[in-house]
Amino acid sequence: MLDRLLVIGGRVLDPGSGFDAKADVFLEEGRVSRVGEIMPSSIPHDYMWIDATGMIVSPGLIDLHCHLRDPGFEEKETIGTGTEAAACGGFATVCCMANTNPPIDSPETVSYVHEKARREATVRVLPVGCITVGQNGRKLTDMEGLARAGVVGFSDDGRPVTDAQVMRKAMESAGCLDLPIVEHCEDASISRGGVMNDGILAGRLRLKGIPVAAEEMAVARNIDLCRITAARLHIAHVSTAEAVALVRQARRENLPVTAEVTPHHLTLTEERVAGYDTSAKVNPPLRTLADIEALLEGISDGAIEVIATDHAPHMAADKATDFNSAAFGISGLETALAVLLTAVVGRISLPILIERLTAGPARVLRARKHRRVSPPNLIPEGLGTLLPGAPGDLCVFDPGFEWVVDPSRFVSKGKHSPWTGTHLKGKTMLTVVGGRIAYRHEGINFHAVRGSGKSDAGESR
Ligand code: DOR
Fold first, then answer.
1. How far is the centre of ligand 1, averaged over its atoms, from the C-alpha of 352 (Å)?
2. Which of 33, 97, 169, 205 makes a 20 to 30 Å CA pair with 390?
């Protein structure tokens, strides 16, 4: 860890505190000590500093939804490789989903994730625990035990909880623990066997569709259950206009409902699979332009508070097969910010975009009002902001940097991306986690002020 780090000359964009101006960020002992202005000639000699002129300095990004595949699917990703990919993308905190092997359905597996993260993670890892044992949809996990071991929410992501009574009980327990249920909303009774969006294109391609109604019915049911349990409900990867409308209405009623959308659902339509390209096969499936419009509107008006990657790495062989058999998922941590800067900014403002990647997810994580059990304090004060005392987490990105996506250069083991060969504008240049350099682009140099106050270029770590 660098004891004292100074990032000077950038546009500091901290939506959580409302700060947006050219300024310098001081980190001391792993925390933000101040955001202010300093004359280059008066940089204190005990600081390492970097010049962020022309760049944007935001709090480290927070991904509420990614798959690190560890334990059990280490051939697809590990906590080490997945968090390195996160750091490359500007993420300082990631929440990892529970569909591992074994699933994160016992305090022992929660402890495994924490211990492995302590040893090999480049960024902060916050595990999500299963709702049901083995994600079987029937028997609830020991949710209190999982909370004590340190989970930040509960989800059977990848497998929706089909039985409404099981979900009701899960919400009652999660409500007592004041932790969110993060639900993959899909009514499997009408989506089973589907591989893409249901509609005319699916018919033409002779592929089975996943109807919009599968998401809409599940979102409606879960909001109804939220209404009778008052538990916090976070809806994962919303993909349809209908679901956005339901979430907006629930929030108008002051129900504790939040939702996330992914970069791929915000930018790509079902047309992307017209050539049977398995890199764009994802669940929920890519939808239509009208859905994208509604998702963007939801982001703009606050109905959707979070953008999350749903980074879902697979082995090449899982994707190098026919469309029906290929695995669902996109390797998205290393492209998320750049895709959003390239294709979404302009439709929504940069401050709102960064809000949905920092303060928005932090609100979902921090919303706890009471604690019946006292799990480890996983979520530092000020997470997702640059307020004094907040964790020293930074994402420094160059909005003008142009590059072409080449998944063979991903550090993630998942090399499948629907943006392969796409020209993107904007790139993470530096990621700092708790004052420690997690990622540094080769174009970033560190400087140290020596003796008389003269600065020299220095080494990075
Ligand atoms: O595309 C997806 N992949 N959607 C999910 O819900 C699960 C994920 C995975 O685990 O591969």
1. 26
2. 97
For atom 3 of ligand 1, the residue with the nearest CA is 329
Q: How many whole angstroms from 264 Cα to the centroid of ligand 1? A: 13
- Tens digit of each residue's pLDDT (9 = 90 or more) over 39-55: 777 788 788 999 999 99
Residue 4 reports pLDDT greater than 70: yes
- Between the two ends of the chain, the Cα-to-Cα distance in Å is 8
Place of tokens 């927070």: 62
- Containing 213, the helix (H) or strand (E) segment is helix 212-229
Residue 451 has pLDDT above 80, yes or no: no
DSSP 330: B
Would you say how long the chain is, in residues? 461
CB–CB of 235/243 below 8 Å? Answer: yes
At 385, is the secondary structure helix, strand, or coil?
Answer: coil
Cβ of 328 less than 6 Å from ligand 1: yes
Would the CB of 283 count as within 6 Å of ligand 1?
yes
Catalytic residues: 310
**Alpha-carbon separation of residue 416 from 153, 164, 184, 456 (angstroms):** 28, 35, 22, 41
Contact yes or no for 94/123 (Cβ under 8 A): yes
Q: How far is CA 354 from CA 36, 350, 376, in A?
A: 20, 6, 28
Radius of gyration of the chain (CA): 21
SS3 135: helix
Instruction: Give residue-wise pLDDT tens across range 352-368.
Output: 999 999 999 999 998 76
Q: Is 117 left (phi over 0), alpha (psi -120 to 50) or beta?
A: alpha
Give the model confidence (pLDDT) of 277-296 as tens digits.
999 999 999 999 999 999 99
Residue-wise pLDDT tens digits, 152-191: 999 999 999 999 999 999 999 999 999 999 999 999 999 9
